[in-house]
Design goal:
This protein has helices spanning 14-25, 49-58, 73-87, 115-142, 163-183, 201-207, 220-225, 229-240, 255-262, 274-282, 291-295, 301-305; strands spanning 5-9, 29-34, 62-67, 92-95, 147-151, 189-194, 197-198, 226-227, 252-254. It is of the alpha/beta class and 310 residues long.
Length: 310
C-alpha cells in the first residue's frame, strides 16, 4: 500500500507539529510547511520545520521540511508544486497556520483593538488557509480525493472573547463547510477540528511548567484537563485513515469526541475530555454545533437553485 501523502501547513510547533507526528505514526509522508528554519527563525520560538520533519521520520513516517510563507499565494503554489513533482499526488491537507498569539489583545473591547494587528491575524490565519487550499485542491482532485482539515478553537458558535480571534476561529469552521460544499462531488471531505486546552510548547512556557510538571500549573483547568498536541494529531490521523470520512464532511469535530469514537489516547494513555470536564466544572454542557445547527448551513438558495454546481 502506498504511503498516504499529507501537507501540514503550520507544522513548526503546537498542533501542527502534533498532527505531523501523528500522521507519521501511521506511516504517512508528511510535508512539514512553515516559515522558521534552522538557518532563519522568524519568531522568538526555537522550533523549526526541519525538527518537525525529523520527528515525523523518527516515528515511522517520512518527514520533509518545506519553507514557505503561506500568506503569499506564490509560495503556497510553490510548496504544492514540490509535492506534485516528488509524489505526484496529495491526499491530506491540514491548515494550521495561526501565528496570532502575539497579535491577540484579550481583555480589550473591539473599539480599543489595534486594527493593524487584527488585519495581520486574519491574513495569517484565514487568508493563508484559503490560498493554500486553493493551491492544493487541483492536485487533490487529480489524486482521487481524501481530506482537508481546518484547525480551529472550539466546536461551538460561542463568542471567543476577542473580536479578531473570534472572526478567525469561526471563519475557519466556515471554510471547512464551504470546501465541503464545493468538493462534495470530488471525493474530498473537509472538516474543522478543535483541540482542547492545548499543552503546546508556548503554553507550557507561559504557564511556567514543563510537560512533566504541567499538573503543578496555577491554572487549575490547564493542570486538570489539558492535552498534548499529539492528541489532536491523532484525531486528525484517525480521520485521514477513515475510509468513510466523507460522511463527516462539512462539520466541526473535537479531539475529545473523536477519541471516544476512534479509541486513540494521548501520550500518557489518557483520554482528556474537555467537554465532560467543562460540564462537571461549570455545571452546564458545551453547546456544540449539532445537527440542528447544520440544518441552517445547507439547503439554502445556492443548493436549491444551483444544486449541481460545481
Amino acid at each position: 500500500m502506498e504511503r498516504l501523502v499529507a501537507l501540514v501547513a503550520g507544522a513548526t510547533r503546537g498542533a501542527g507539529r502534533g498532527i505531523s507526528l501523528a500522521l507519521g505514526e501511521r506511516g504517512a509522508t508528511v510535508y512539514c510547511v512553515g516559515r522558521s528554519t534552522r538557518e532563519r527563525l522568524v519568531s522568538e520560538r526555537p522550533e523549526t520545520i526541519e525538527e518537525s520533519a525529523e520527528l515525523v521520520t523518527a516515528r515511522g513516517g517520512k518527514g520533509i521540511a518545506v519553507q514557505a510563507d503561506l500568506t503569499r499565494p506564490s509560495e503556497a503554489e510553490s510548496a504544492i508544486d514540490i509535492v506534485r513533482e516528488r509524489e505526484g499526488r496529495l491526499d491530506v491537507l491540514v491548515n494550521d497556520v495561526w501565528g496570532g498569539d502575539d497579535l491577540t489583545e484579550f481583555g480589550k473591547p473591539f473599539w480599543e483593538l489595534d486594527p493593524d494587528l487584527g488585519k495581520m491575524m486574519m491574513e495569517r490565519a484565514i487568508f493563508s488557509h484559503i490560498v493554500t487550499a486553493r493551491a492544493a485542491a487541483p492536485l487533490m482532485i487529480a489524486s482521487g480525493g481524501r481530506l482537508i482539515v481546518e484547525i480551529t478553537d472550539g466546536n461551538t458558535a460561542w463568542y471567543r472573547g476577542n473580536l479578531y480571534y473570534d472572526l478567525v476561529k469561526s471563519s475557519v469552521i466556515r471554510l471547512a463547510l464551504a470546501y465541503a460544499r464545493e468538493l462534495r462531488n470530488k471525493k474530498i471531505a473537509a472538516v474543522a477540528v478543535t483541540p482542547g486546552f492545548l499543552r503546546s510548547e508556548a503554553m507550557l512556557e507561559r504557564m511556567g511548567v514543563t510537560e512533566e510538571t504541567y499538573r503543578e500549573a496555577e491554572d487549575v483547568h490547564f493542570a486538570a484537563s489539558s492535552e498534548t498536541p499529539l492528541y489532536v494529531g491523532r484525531a486528525v490521523a484517525a480521520l485521514a485513515f477513515d475510509a468513510d470520512v466523507m460522511k463527516k464532511s462539512g462539520r466541526v469535530y473535537a479531539s475529545w469526541d473523536l477519541a471516544d469514537e476512534y479509541g486513540f489516547t494521548d501520550v500518557d494513555g489518557s483520554q482528556p475530555h474537555w467537554g465532560r470536564y467543562f460540564e462537571k466544572t461549570f455545571g452546564y454542557p458545551l453547546k456544540t454545533c449539532d445537527e440542528k445547527f447544520y440544518e441552517y448551513c445547507f439547503g439554502g438558495f445556492v443548493d436549491t437553485i444551483f444544486g449541481d454546481w460545481p
